[in-house]
Specification:
This protein is mainly α and 73 residues long. It has a domain of 40 residues. Helices cover 82% and strands 0% of the residues. The chain starts with a helix and ends with a helix.
Length: 73
């Protein structure tokens, strides 16, 4: 697995280092699209963390209830 990562990283660096000029034009809408993708990714990350946090919280709260119930008997 580490070997594949090393090959991919070195190949990417090689392509970046020896690339030609593109002479491309990026219109103003492209920056807005990139910003939307970045903000959407951040929102997705927070939503994912929230779901896993709720699962962990539910696990520990249900675990605490069962020990309180057993202690009362």
């Amino acid at each position: 697995m580490k070997n594949k990562f090393t090959v991919a990283l070195s190949g990417s660096l090689f392509l970046i280092a020896f690339s030609n000029q593109a002479h491309a034009y990026l219109d103003p809408g492209t920056g807005s699209m990139i910003l939307q993708v970045v903000l959407g990714g951040i929102a997705m990350g927070f939503a994912t963390l929230s779901v896993y946090f709720q699962r962990v919280k539910a696990f520990f709260s249900s675990r605490g209830k069962s020990t309180k119930k057993d202690a009362g008997r």
